[in-house]
Amino acid sequence: MKVFVNIDGGSRGNPGPAAAAMVITGEEGEVLATKSKFLGFRLTNNFAEWSALEGAVTALVHLARRYGSLEAEVRADSELVVRQFNRQYKVKDAKLKSIAERVWQALAGTPGLKLSLKHVPREENKLADAAVNHELDNQKSIGN
Questions:
Q1: For the segment 65-95, what is each residue's pLDDT rounded down to a tens digit?
Q2: Looking at the DSSP assignment, which residues form a beta bridge with residue 72?
Q3: Distance of alpha carbon 102 from alpha carbon 92, whole angstroms
Q4: Do residues 36 and 134 make contact, with C-beta atoms less than 8 angstroms apart?
Q5: What DSSP assignment string belongs to 16-68?
Q6: Do strands 16-25 and 31-43 pair parallel, antiparallel, or not at all (unpaired)?
Q7: What span, in angstroms and rounded, lies between the C-alpha atoms of 53 and 62?
Q8: Integer Cα distance of 91 and 144 in angstroms
Q9: Taking a C-beta distance cutoff of 8 angstroms, is the pair 34, 23 a contact?
Q10: Domains of the chain
């Protein structure tokens, strides 16, 4: 089974209120699942992007265990997160490093999951971006 996962994270104010989202699609482009989550206040965009990746990996690990194997192409519009995940850049921030280590451990512990993470332009990530903005718009106390 092969799936495509678009992820996005956003922070209004950076730091500010933040959310993460993922959209899983099948090989024919059909949307299989969309999930978004409000992360909290006074968080950075990079934290939100890494949180989106962690959420996607958690879901993909579950699916790989359920189906025995899974190939996933994860797409993100954050070049920094893609390069950090692919170990081209170091993750220096302690909070981000903690998320990255959980992501890498989850992948190492799931041999049935073949995951690649690639950068895509923002225009190709509209569904995940919309899910992040919808989550942030739904927070009643934003800005307080």
A1: 999 999 999 999 999 999 999 999 999 999 9
A2: 3, 115
A3: 15
A4: yes
A5: EEEEEEEEEE-TTS-EEEEEEEEEEEEE-HHHHHHHHHHHHHHHHHHHHHHHS
A6: antiparallel
A7: 14
A8: 31
A9: yes
A10: 2-137 (3.30.420.10)
